[in-house]
Write a structure and sequence with these properties.
Distance between the termini: 145 Å
CATH superfamily of the largest domain: EAL domain
CATH class of the largest domain: Alpha Beta
Strand order of the largest sheet: 8-9-11-12-13-14-15-16
CATH topology of the largest domain: TIM Barrel
Radius of gyration: 37 Å
Number of strands: 17
Structural class: alpha/beta
CATH architecture of the largest domain: Alpha-Beta Barrel
Shape: elongated
Helix content: 40-55%
Length: 496
C-alpha cells in the first residue's frame, strides 16, 4: 500500500507529461489552422513532435499551398479573358480607377473587329478564335505601355494612362496599318480591319462614362463608314436623339405619322411628266419633318424596314387611285432595301397587294440600290426574277456608286438604270463625268435598258442628256420632292 501511495503522484506526473507532449503539437496545429483561416497562406506549418504529427503538419502546408494556387487561378480568371489572356472589364476598372483618381490624361480606345460574324459562320468558331488571339497579340505589340483588354466577342480596349491628344489620330492610323496586315491561318488568308471609337478623360468622369462615350463614337464611325471616330458632345446628342427615334419609329408607322413626297421624272422623248419617285418623310409631332437619311438607317438596323416599305407601298397604291380619279396617269417609283429582298415573303406580298388594290403592275416601279444586290446576289436574283416575271418594272438606283460588276448587271432582271446624281450635277463642267454618263448610256442601251439621270440642276444638262437619248430626267431643275397637294398644283402649272 505504501508503494502504491508513493507511485500515484509519480504516475500522475508521468501522465500529465505524456498528455502535454501530445496536446502541445495539436494546439500548435490549431493555432496555425486559425492563422490560415484568416487568409495567411505564406508560412509553413510545423510542430516539434512525433513523425506522424510532423507528417500531418506537412499535409497542412501542402493544403495551404494548394489553396494559394487555386485562389491565384480564380483571381486571374476573374480579371482576365480565358481565350486571349488579356485583361477583361473587371481588370480594366481595377487598373484605371487609380489613374482616374490621380487625374491622369487618360484615353480609352474601343475597337470592334469587322466581319467576325462572317468568319465564324463561314470558317467556323475555331478559326474565329484563332483570329481573336492574333488580334490580341497585335494589340499588345502596338504599345506595350497601354492596357489591352478584351470586353466581348469582337470588342477590345486599349487604355492609356497618358496620351498626346495631337498625335492620337496618327496612332490610330498606325494601329489600323498594324492590325490590317494579312493573317495566314493554315491555307486561309484573312485581311483584318477594325472600327474604333475614342474617348478622353475629363474631370469627374468614371470608367463607365468613358466606355459609354467610346461606344457612342464607335457606333457613329460605323454609321458613317469611317475607320475611327473621336468622341465629342455633338455625337452624343445625336446618339440620344437616335435612341429616342428608335423607340418612336414603330409608333410613327402604326399611327401614320409618315407622309409621301413626290419628285417628278420627265420623259425626255415625250417632254412630259410620266413618272414620279415616292420619297417618305416622317412628320414628327414635336420634331417636325425628319428626312429619310435620319430614320431609314434606324429602320434597317431595328428590323422595321419591312413595315416601313409596306406602308410606303400601300400609300403609293392609294395615291395612284387618287390621281386616276383626277385624270392623272402617273407611274410611281418606290424604293426597296436589301432587308426587303432578304424576306422571301415580301415579293409575294407586293404581287398579292397590287392585285387586291386593283393597281396594274405597270403603275409601280421598284428601285433597288446596287448594295442591296451585292449583299446577297443569289437571293436578290431569285427575288427580282419573281417580281419581273409578274410584270413589275425594276430599276437599279444610284448606279455607279456601288460595287456591282458588269457580269452581275448582265444577269440582273432589271429594266432601267438610274445614274447617280454625283455624275450629273456638274456634268457640263467635268469631262470625266461626261465620259462616264455617255458610256453608261451606251452600255445600258446595248443591254436593252432605259436610263434615268437624277441630279439635274440646269437646262443645259437636260438638253445634253436629251441629245444623247437618255430616257428620263429627275432633279431640282424640274422640282424638289413635294407633298401631294403641292405636287398637284405644280403639275397643273408645269410646262411639261
Amino acid at each position: 500500500m505504501a508503494i502504491l501511495v508513493l507511485m500515484l503522484p509519480v504516475s500522475l506526473l508521468l501522465a500529465f507529461w505524456i498528455s502535454g507532449s501530445i496536446t502541445r503539437p495539436i494546439k500548435q496545429l490549431i493555432e496555425q489552422a486559425r492563422y490560415i483561416a484568416k487568409g495567411n497562406y505564406h508560412s509553413n506549418v510545423s510542430v516539434d513532435s512525433s513523425v506522424e504529427l510532423q507528417q500531418l503538419a506537412s499535409e497542412f502546408t501542402s493544403m495551404q499551398q494548394a489553396i494559394v494556387a487555386r485562389e491565384k487561378a480564380i483571381e486571374h480568371q476573374a480579371f482576365h479573358d480565358p481565350l486571349t489572356n488579356l485583361a477583361n472589364r473587371n481588370e480594366l476598372q481595377r487598373v484605371c480607377e487609380p489613374w482616374l483618381t490621380s487625374g491622369s490624361n487618360m484615353a480609352i480606345c474601343l475597337i470592334n473587329i469587322r466581319r467576325m460574324t462572317e468568319v465564324n459562320v463561314t470558317l467556323g468558331h475555331a478559326v474565329g478564335d484563332e483570329v481573336i488571339k492574333e488580334v490580341a497579340k497585335r494589340l499588345c505589340q502596338i504599345n506595350p505601355k497601354a492596357l489591352a483588354c478584351r470586353l466581348s466577342g469582337d470588342e477590345f480596349v486599349l487604355a492609356f494612362k497618358e496620351y498626346d491628344y495631337s498625335s492620337f489620330e496618327a496612332f490610330l492610323t498606325m494601329l489600323q496599318a498594324h492590325i490590317s496586315q494579312d493573317y495566314h491561318y493554315q491555307d486561309i488568308l484573312l485581311h483584318l480591319q477594325f472600327t474604333a471609337g475614342v474617348s478622353f478623360y475629363q474631370p469627374g468622369m468614371d470608367i463607365v462614362t468613358l466606355l459609354r462615350q467610346a461606344d457612342t463614337a464607335l457606333q457613329h464611325a460605323k454609321i458613317n463608314k469611317r475607320d475611327y471616330q473621336i468622341y465629342d458632345t455633338h455625337i452624343d446628342k445625336n446618339s440620344i436623339e437616335r435612341f429616342q427615334l428608335i423607340n418612336e419609329l414603330k409608333v410613327a408607322i402604326e399611327q401614320s405619322q409618315l407622309v409621301l413626297y413626290y419628285q417628278p421624272k420627265l420623259n425626255l422623248a415625250l417632254q412630259k411628266i410620266t413618272h414620279v419617285e415616292a420619297l417618305v418623310r416622317w412628320v414628327h409631332p414635336s420634331r417636325g419633318i425628319i428626312p429619310p437619311d435620319t430614320f431609314i438607317p434606324i429602320a434597317e438596323k431595328t428590323m422595321q424596314m419591312d413595315a416601313l416599305t409596306r406602308w410606303v407601298m400601300k400609300e403609293a397604291m392609294a395615291q395612284y387611285h387618287r390621281w386616276q380619279a383626277q385624270g392623272i396617269d402617273m407611274c410611281i417609283a418606290v424604293n426597296i432595301s436589301a432587308e426587303n429582298l432578304k424576306d422571301e415573303q415580301f415579293c409575294y406580298w407586293v404581287i398579292d397587294t397590287l392585285a387586291q388594290q386593283h393597281v396594274p403592275v405597270s403603275a409601280i416601279t421598284l428601285e433597288i440600290t446596287e448594295d442591296a444586290v451585292v449583299s446577297d446576289p443569289e437571293l436578290a436574283l431569285k427575288q427580282l426574277s419573281l417580281l419581273r416575271e409578274n410584270g413589275l418594272t425594276l430599276s437599279i438606283d444610284d448606279y455607279g456608286t456601288g460595287y456591282s460588276s458588269l457580269a452581275q448587271l448582265k444577269q440582273l432582271p432589271v429594266d432601267e438604270l438610274k445614274i447617280d446624281k454625283s455624275f450629273v450635277q456638274k456634268l457640263l463642267q467635268n469631262e470625266a463625268d461626261q465620259i462616264i454618263v455617255q458610256s453608261t448610256l451606251q452600255l445600258a442601251h446595248n443591254l436593252g435598258l432605259k436610263v434615268v439621270a437624277e441630279g439635274i440642276e440646269d437646262k443645259a444638262t437636260l438638253l445634253w442628256l436629251t441629245e444623247r437619248h437618255c430616257e428620263m430626267a429627275q432633279g431640282f431643275y424640274l422640282s424638289r420632292p413635294l407633298p401631294e397637294q403641292q405636287f398637284n398644283d405644280w403639275l397643273s402649272q408645269s410646262i411639261y
